Amino acid sequence: MIQKKIREKAKELLEKKVVDLIVGFGEWTLPLRTTPIFIRTPEGADHLIWNSFCENNLATYLHKFSHFKVGVVVKGCDARSITALSLEKRFKPGQLYLIGVPCQRMVDRRRVKKAVKGEILRAGEQGDQIIVEGEDFKTALRREDFLYPSCQVCIHRTPRQANVLVGDPVEETPMVETHPEIKEFEKKSPEERWDFFEKESSRCIRCYACREVCPMCYCAECFVDSSNPKWIEKSLSPSDIEFYHIVRAYHQTGRCSGCGACERACPMEIRLTYLTQKLNQDVKELFSFETGIEAETPPPLSTYDIEDRQEFIK
Amino acid sequence: MEDHWEPKILAFLCNWCSYAGADLAGTSRIQYPPNIRVIRVPCSGRINPLFILKALQSGIDGVLVSGCHPGDCHYISGNYVGRRKSATLKRFLEYLGFEEGRVQFSWVSAAEGGKFSQVVDEVTQDIKKLGPARRFVKKIGSQ
Amino acid sequence: MNLKLNKKDFKPFLQTLMDEYDLFAPVQLTEGVSVYKKIDHPGEVDLSTANPQKPMKEVFFPQSETMFRYEKVGEQNQVVSTEEVKRERIILGARPCDIQAVSLMDEVFSGKEYTDVYYINKRNITTIIGMACGHPFSTCFCSSTGGGPFLRNGSDLFFIDLGESFLVEFLTGKGMTFQKNKFFGEASTEEINLAKALEEKALHKTDASVPVKGIEKRLDLMAESPFWDRVHEKCIGCRVCTYLCPTCHCFDIVDEALTNKGQRVRNWDSCLSSLYSLETSGHNPRPTNRERTRQRIMHKFNYFPKNFGRIACVGCGRCILYCPVHFDIRQAINWTSAKRLKLQRGEPLTNP
Questions:
Q1: From CA A75, how far away is CA A2, in angstroms rounded?
Q2: How far apart are CA B118 and CA C150, in angstroms?
Q3: Which of A265, B10, B36, B74 has the most CB atoms around it within 10 Å of its CB?
Q4: Contact (CB<8Å) B143/C261
């Protein structure tokens, strides 16, 4: 069982003082959720769990604990974020120990909530089903029908970059050339596409949850907070909100692992992964680059190829 | 919209090639549309996507970014790096819903006064067809 | 006196209100997401969710509010102040927790020395129609914070959902001016008894066990406790809890300027932002997330009680539901009472 192996490994790492701290998932007060936990003693390792609700990208905590030797429980996407961060020299060699878990894909708790009437008080997993219980209902839902959008299109679920794998590698979905969602979206006219973006971003409350959960957003001063030059204002003006989302997404070009943490964090349920998926697709098409797959390949916007495409340049 | 709307186009020209090319167009007395406002930058690689977005947000109807031909960059590889940024940014903006042709890119060398005026002419015609930029523009007082 | 409103008359009833007032009610922006907004037609009202994401305080204290505009005309700067709101307002569907929170904010914004004209103007012209919570969430802990799902304090009228109709209570002079509305009928004894039964049931559902009592004194002793080293760990420093909190009221004032014109705008701000306490010298008295998390909890449960005599939390549970990393304030409060010893041994703060 994966959970048992995670606990054993964590215990071992802490006993042998390979790491000072383990970041993993623990049980929480609400159903359909786990929570990030921080273990410092071997006994504490028994609090670590693993299930289909381990939705956070724990790589984002590595910036906070940068002066410790840290062990992290990582899914495929999290490990790719960490590889990308290592390329950006955020970690010293040997500072991290990755406990890799081949990912079964995470369940979208918000869609599960909408599929039933009444508050969900308890939830569990049984085989390929999610069982949810409320005051006067108990329903079984097919897990595969309720995966997060980013998980549905994920093709690198096994964290091969990890120091250890606590499960058998997952059989990967075959590569798709274009995300079907992107292809459909690109059939719309520019007016319709901007309508969609405007509508989604109109709900934004500038809470920056998307920015803070993202492991790749670690600038000491975000462009949003810059006052000289002042790029955008802090109010809810539609134009400034759109500017924020365009730039935040664009800053992920060649860096985004597609984990979807941004979209899951948004309290107003704004579609965010449809932006980063397009950027990831373009980077793959133009520069044959996928974030976090190779530990040596430099990020695409930090380098160049003499033969890069330029048919769009007059 | 007024009958006599003229587009405002911002042109980021690299100092060593495109800006010199624009100068040459001037000294050669080649006519080109007066709609562009030039901002001189050291290299096309200096262009931060934030500049282009800020321009569009401010009501600029179109943006042209022009630099040295590949291999001729004064800073050796600035235009190569800029090329990658330009490619990804252009695709992303069009995906979002900015019309194709609002943001354009060119290579113009210091000797290409003629090409510069031709590029400006084409870009101006394209923007005229697209109409004024409306959807992303920030207006004070539109809360 | 108890009257009732049949649900089949609900939309025409709303129309009668809208003929004379600006009506604010929860509106669904997308499935699962709603906010308080001005209604343009009765069909927009969505009372199906227990509580909209954004709290009711928005009606009096908008997230972005223009204070005045200016424009250079010739050599002169013309300043145009934002107009006083004249048309009276009604808020429909506000829950007791949000209403309690607004009463708390009233003390901040209409203090003895300073009054916030923007807030007071809107507050004075507003009638609040409270809505009882027949189905509180498991995350609702209003009963622990001095509130309750059927608490009527602060409402001018109070609606209780009976299924086919609403029971209507008139609680203040302002509320009683609506008694003559043609859609109100007399409530039967069964309906009144049903309302009482629903109230009993709801009271048992909300969490009254969160140890808020005495927290001010406990926190007095904890300013430098290693407790904060653990509590802040998983917080990523976004602003979801502060923006969705009905009692949070910090704001930032900025001038937005174009060449010849501009405006002064007030926006919500959050103490969890690293810029919040950053001084011009570059010094930041709350340099890391640890200090900022401590500040938030201390403010709500220690400083605010010292200044205003009550804790700055109404137990609505939004911070628990929407935190991206699932921070649970009830756990943090529990931990202040029991687990400090365990923390020194380095055990994780997890659900026991």
A1: 12
A2: 73
A3: A265
A4: no
Q: Which of A216-220, A246-250, C45-49, C174-178 has the lowest mean pLDDT?
A: C45-49
Q: DSSP assignment, residue C140? A: -
Question: In 3-state terms, what secondary structure has residue A43?
Answer: helix
| C97 in Cβ contact with C146 (< 8 Å) | no
Amino acid at A155: I
pLDDT tens digits, one per residue of A148-206: 999 988 989 999 999 999 999 988 877 665 677 888 899 999 999 999 999 999 999 99
Cβ-proximal residues to A111 (8 Å cutoff; 6+ apart), any chain: A146
Picking from C311, C323, C330, the residue whose alpha carbon sits closest to that of residue C139 is: C330
Answer yes or no: are the C-beta atoms of C261 and C69 closer than 8 Å: yes
Candidates A191, A280, A304, A306: best to mutate against B (most CBs of B within 10 A) is A304
Nearest to A10 by CA among A35, A46, A37, A54: A46
Amino acid code (one letter) for B71? G
- Residue owning tokens 């697209």: B130
Q: State which H helix or E strand residue A77 sits in.
A: helix A76-87
Residue C345 clears pLDDT 80, i.e. is over it: no
Side chain identity at residue C105, one-letter code: M
* Nearest of A33, A229, A253, C303 to residue B91 by alpha carbon: A253
Is pLDDT at C185 greater than 70 in this prediction?
yes
Residue C207 corresponds to which amino acid? Answer: D
Q: Which of C65, C209, C210, C236 to probe the A interface (max A CBs under 10 A)?
A: C236
- Cβ neighbours of A36 in C, within 8 Å: 233-234, 325-326
Q: What is the largest CA-CA distance in chain C?
A: 72
Per-residue model confidence (pLDDT) at position C346: 56
C5-55 tens-digit pLDDT: 999 999 999 999 999 999 999 999 999 999 999 999 999 999 987 799 999
Cβ of residue A42 closer than 8 Å to a chain C Cβ: no
In this model, does residue C148 exceed pLDDT 70?
A: yes
| A229 prior amide bond cis, ω within 30 | yes
- What was the ipTM of the complex prediction? 0.94
Nearest to C146 by CA among C195, C95, C196, C212: C212
Closest of C58, C55, C59, C52 to residue C34, by C-alpha: C52
Burial (CB count <10 Å: 0-12, 13-18, 19+), residue A310:
middle
Does the pLDDT at position A17 exceed 70? Answer: yes
Q: What is the spatial distance between Cα C84 and Cα B91, in angstroms, rounded to a whole number?
A: 46
Element (H, E) at A74: strand A70-74
Q: Which residues pair with C115 in a beta bridge?
A: C110
Phi/psi at A141 (5° precision): -120, 145
Contact A30 C320 (CB under 8 A): yes
CA distances from A289 to A183, A312, B95 (A): 20, 20, 20
pLDDT at B124 over 90: yes
Closest alpha carbon to C220 in C302, C338, C295, C306: C302
**B9-130 — its CATH code?**
3.40.50
